[in-house]
């Protein structure tokens, strides 16, 4: 999807952005199913029909939020990658960015990761393709690391899945269990992910 | 909590078990907030007030489901552990059991893992203590493995967190991404978890 079309789907006005913000708060707290567009309008002290000019349905609003969230996560991980770096450094940088994004944006992340079942089939497919691009960044780094001899994973597919899963699940529990700073957690998780792909962490 | 009290809180009758089953299906599909006790009764073709004699509130029903689910997960992982075995074998067995439980019971797991925010504070605390017991099994095995020299994790707390998190997140995505059998996934994840704690996986 090109950037212009993405911006159009999202709703580029400030009013639309405020609606998305209020919707994320309510969806994260009450769940998508239990939140009405009236609840969202009421939170912003707007009239009951105020969401309609921006998003014709609650699903369209969820789609806009999911698109924005997943594109932001993808961009964050992609920007953290530099193919000129060694595979170990690339994995540390991208895993850290992924974990930090899910810790810092945990309300948004919970909505975009856990409410996917409420999207239309066409919208779900589009979001799924963005998610695959994020996983593909980890897959490419692992493949490169195998080629250079830096990594020796048992099963690359399982490693990519686990790296992605660990990051996503941060949005469910963070902060807790002795980890309350995104940077500390990111550093620990980067170490665990290096171990998963068989990098030498003792150097 | 003793077993007798737990059974009382759960509702020991067959009718109560059917209500919990229907509630899990609806909570997993629509979310806790968007499901009413009337919806649950209707799914079982019962009168609108049929849940009330068994569970006075929707929260009491969620608590019973959470208690049952978390106790079952704890029992499953605990039964998979045998302190007489070597740490490597113990970690493989318990990680596999944890992953398989979340794959096989994914609807129940999603409800008991993602709807915790809707429990009362007292009920949440009780469920949290059961969750800690499950994590403690992994922590004890890792501690033992460090003592025997079988494991060399960088940060044991992060490793326990990641092992638990990987298992829980299975209920969000399973089956997908090339993994559709609980046993295959469990074997791959057990290998990744051994790597995380610095076990020698090449032997």
Short overview:
Chain A is mainly α and 203 residues long. Chain A has helices at residues 3-10, 14-30, 37-43, 58-80, 87-104, 106-114, 121-148, 156-173, 182-196.
Task: Describe what you observe in this structure.
- The structure is a homodimer of 203-residue chains.
- The first copy, chain A, has 203 residues and is mostly helical.
- In chain A, 70% of the residues lie in helices and 0% in strands.
- Chain A is built from nine helices and no strands.
- Chain A has helices at residues 3-10, 14-30, 37-43, 58-80, 87-104, 106-114, 121-148, 156-173, 182-196.
- The longest helix of chain A is centred in the middle third of the chain and has 28 residues, at 121-148.
- Chain A is elongated, with a radius of gyration of 19 Å.
- The model of chain A has no long low-confidence stretch (mean pLDDT 94).
- The interface between A and B is large, with 36 and 37 residues.
Write the SSE topology.
2 copies of one chain form a homodimer.
Chain A (H helix, E strand, L loop, with lengths): L2 H8 L3 H17 L6 H7 L14 H23 L6 H18 L1 H9 L6 H28 L7 H18 L8 H15 L7
Helix pairs in contact in A: 2-3, 2-6, 4-5, 4-6, 4-7, 5-7, 5-8, 5-9, 6-8, 7-8
